[in-house]
Amino acid sequence: MAAHDCYHCGLPVADSDDGKFTTVILGQQRDMCCPGCLAVAEAIVDNGLEDYYQFRTEPAQKSDDGILETLDKLKVYDDPSLQEEFVFEEGQNKQIQLTLEGITCAACGWLIEKQLSKVEGIKQVAVNVQERRALVTWSPFQIKLSQILSTLKRIGYIGSPFHPDEHEASYKREQKTFLKKLGLAGIMTMQVMMLMTGLYFDWFGAIELETRQYFYWVALTLTTPVVLYSGSTFYVGAAKALSARTVNMDVPVTLAIFGTYIAGIRSTMLEQGEVYFESICMFIFLLLLSRFLEHRSRHRAAQISANMMQYVPVSATKLMPDGSIAECLAKQLKVDDVVLVKPGETIPIDGLVTEGNAAVDESMLTGEFNPVRKTSKSPVYGGTVCQDGSLTITVTQTLKNALVNQIVRLQASAMASKPKAAQLADNFSRYFVTAVLLISALTYTFWAYNGSDDAFWITISVLVATCPCALGLATPSALTCAMAKLNKQGILLKRADALEQITDIDTIALDKTGTLTQGKFTISNAWYADGVDSDSAFSIARALESRSEHPIAKAFNGGKTPSGNTLHKVSNFTVTPGGGISGEINDTLFSMGSAAFSVHESQQSFIEGCPTANVFLTVKGRIMAAFEVRDSLRDDTQETLDILAKSHTLAVLSGDTQKNVDSLTEPLPISTAKGGLTPEQKYEAVQAMQQTGSKVMMMGDGINDAPVLASADVAIAVGNATDVAKTAADVILLGYQLLSVPELIRTSHQVKQKIRQNIGWSVGYNILILPFAVSGLLSPWMAVVGMSLSSIIVVSNSTRLLGK
Questions:
Q1: Which secondary-structure segment (H or E) carries 151?
Q2: What would the pLDDT profile of 259-289 be if each residue is shown by its tens digit?
Q3: From CA 653, how far away is CA 507, in angstroms rounded?
Q4: How far apart are CA 213 and CA 211, in angstroms?
Q5: Helix axes 780-799 and 469-488, enclosed angle (nearest 10)
Q6: Is residue 701 predicted with pLDDT exceeding 80?
């Protein structure tokens, strides 16, 4: 950087400003071009992040001269109505995805993460440099969004809310650049190979030395743009690695390209020695091709989820309170608004059907192509298609919190996490690259010591042939293809490394209600205490259950109620997860739930008189009524468990009575069936399994399943799970089919197999090819073909997962 260039952004410093804007960085006085760059540089230094200037490989973008005025403008992002569209609730915290401007290299991502992680109130920061995005979670009680954006601005970056459309445009720009480099390399490779092959095989006959040199100069001219433009991807990667004081696979690639290129220039100018311009072009072209295939497959999972937003219509037909119809934007709909969906239209928002009957295609969410019949009180989701009939829908979620948006956010979080297999492969690659560089140096030393004229070219062959590109692609290419496949089938991974853990699972614990069963309850029997009016007791039970969201409540609210009964007014209503419900009616406290929750020990004789009862209505511990509420198995429960039982131990952990659990699980291949469990006892049961060395997968759907889901090695939220269960789960089944679970397990084993195949192939290839390269039997062009084919084979092997 010139003496009169801005140390921060690299632009020239005006003579009139010389010495006007200066600060001390890395122990030296540095010139800045404007107050904006000075403010940013001082902020970086004051926060102890001077290493940024050592790590960076390119200058930062010029900062805003009016930085203080810009910071004031950011306060608009604290407006709750503005945040409504792009800020999400994560328990007590808030989360946002930001599009970042000003990122020029990997050091920028390091700087942003280091700076934001030091700010009090920011809980998590994950920066994706390649996609120029950041996922930020913060506590609204400690810091405001404008302060986060201001912190970014002070160190020279602009953050703005991320939108899927912008992400798609960014990906297309990146792909376009890739194709330009690949296209240039391909065209030039064909020209140079045609020219040089003709010389090698003497297709042009006996030509004079001057003509041969002319051909060399033409080949050099055609090769230069390939080296300087198409190959720049590898040099930037190598520079980033070296600036971070490590090595990656781009380092030997860069050494091989420039070594061969400079040697070719020397041979052409001195008119002596060999040239391998065709090998350089072919090397860059094939390596770019394998990188492009990997780049496309890596983005496939993210694209699938991001593109789901395209299914949601922009507008909606809103029913006004006076009965009139008005068109509005879908994102303007609020909870409790009413919308009308006609046959063939796409449902614009998540909600409950209040009127109508229609078959709805939910394949874009669940991967299941059989339409689902929707009637009154059925849930519907934005982006699904109403195939026949009209539906009147009451909005239950704004577009920001709709299921498709949740999928996009969860998928982004999954892609931000790095699986252990990928981390191990990255670490192994670094050691492998170091070994390749060492072997190359020893190879050159040996052949040069023995006086071989080909010592340099043998070393180049070693660098090219043993480049561990295929090893670096082995794990990420397989994982991303698998995530894309599962996403299409309605299986959403919240953690990318969950696939690795699933292969170690040997025990599967399942909740009963809503997991094994349909969650459609009916009252099959009822008992009433002496002196209790049955109509009055049932009316009280129905009033209490009308306030509950538990599936059992539907048995009372949707069941047949004795004539003349009206619902009572319930106050001080409470829910005890895994136990039951309580509420006051006419200043008297009533409880409903399991015997352990609501029945006093003195009532044991009544319980013995109704052995199959599982829901009790009590007042002050005295039983008024008991009900036997039954549920039926899902249609695919038997088939699913038969498949799972072949390789796993199955256990049922339920809050229902032991008798009902035994009755339901008798025909099923269940090893252990425990009933009458509280949420704490379910948690303790899973802990006990884990203490014996078992790896446990837990499947559940209710609020009371959250603790046990969180404690399991892998947790799956099934079907229409509650938000609490989804939060605790690692995998979410968007559809209603339990058969998705065997498919998930099968895919996880396929991924493990593909990763082993990929690593085995890449390592085996390098071990096999190394002796040939070191001994000088492998010319550079042969090494190029072998290395590139190895990478393409690995990526192609991974993409086979998409078709299985």
A1: helix 145-154
A2: 888 888 888 888 777 777 877 887 788 778 7
A3: 13
A4: 5
A5: 20
A6: no
**Tokens 């309580």 map to which residue?**
582
What gap in Å lies between CA 341 and CA 334, rounded to an integer?
16
Q: Rounded mean pLDDT of 121-135?
A: 72
Q: What are the respective helix, strand and coil percentages of the chain, to the nearest 5? A: 50, 20, 30
Q: Are 520 and 632 in contact (CB under 8 A)?
A: yes
Q: Could you tell me which residue, 51 or 224, shows the higher pLDDT? A: 224
Question: Which of 803 and 178 is assigned the larger pLDDT?
Answer: 178
User: Any residues with CB less than 8 A from the CB of 735 and at least 6 apart, and which?
Assistant: 362, 365, 366, 367, 368, 489, 490, 719
Q: pLDDT (tens digit, 9 = 90+) per residue, 559-604?
A: 443 333 456 888 888 888 767 888 898 888 999 988 877 777 667 7
Is the CB of residue 696 less than 8 Å from the CB of residue 509? yes
Give pairs for 742-746: CB < 8 Å, separation 24+: 742/640, 742/643, 742/644, 743/486, 743/489, 743/491, 744/486, 744/491, 744/502, 744/716, 745/502, 745/505, 745/644
CA neighbor of 280 nearest in space, from 196, 198, 204, 199 = 196
Burial of 225: CB neighbours in 10 Å, binned 0-12, 13-18, 19+: middle
Return all residues near 19 (Cβ < 8 A) that are at least 6 apart: 31
| Confidence (pTM) | 0.56
- The share of the chain scoring above pLDDT 70, in percent, equals 76
How many beta carbons lie within 10 A of that of residue 691, not counting itself? 8
Tell me the sheet residues that pair with 374. 358
Instruction: Report whether 33 contacts 11 (CB < 8 A).
Output: yes
Q: What is the mean pLDDT of the chain?
A: 77
Q: How far is CA 244 from CA 118, 575, 697, in A?
A: 21, 54, 39
Q: Is the distance from CB of 153 to CB of 74 less than 8 angstroms?
A: yes
Q: What's the pLDDT at 682?
A: 85
Q: Cβ(171)–Cβ(299) under 8 Å?
A: yes
Q: Which two tokens stand for residue 481?
A: 């293809």
What number of CA atoms fall less than 13 Å from residue 734's CA on the CB side?
25
Token pair of 200 as six digits: 């090698």
Selection from 712, 719, 713 nearest residue 740 by Cα: 719
Q: How far is CA 161 from the centre of its chain?
A: 18
Using a CB cutoff of 8 Å and minimum separation of 24, what contacts does 109-115 make?
Answer: 110/52, 110/55, 110/244, 111/44, 111/49, 111/52, 111/55, 111/155, 112/152, 112/155, 112/157, 114/49, 115/44, 115/47, 115/49, 115/151, 115/152, 115/155
Q: Which residues contact 281 (CB under 8 A, 6 or more apart)?
A: 185, 188, 189, 192, 193, 222, 223, 226
- DSSP labels, 360-379: EE-HHHHS--S-EEE-TT-E
247-270 CB burial, b ≥16 within 10 A, e <16: bbbbbbbbbbbebbbebbbebbee
pLDDT of residue 67: 47
Write the single-letter amino acid at 281: C
Nearest to 734 by CA among 463, 383, 363: 363
For residue 3, pLDDT over 70 is answered with no
Say how far apart CA 302 and CA 484 lie, in whole Å: 8
Which candidate, 313, 343, 339, 335, places its Cα nearest to that of 325?
A: 339
* Short-list 509, 473, 506, 499, CA closest to 749: 499
CA distance linking residue 90 with residue 123, whole number of Å? 11
Structure tokens at 542: 């129905």
Q: What is the pLDDT of residues 301-313, one digit of tens each?
A: 445 444 455 556 6
Structure tokens at 712: 């399991």
Q: What whole-number percentage of the chain has pLDDT above 90?
A: 3
Helices (H), 160-249: 164-200, 209-225, 232-243
Average pLDDT value for residue range 231-242? 77
Say if CB 532 and CB 616 are below 8 A apart. no
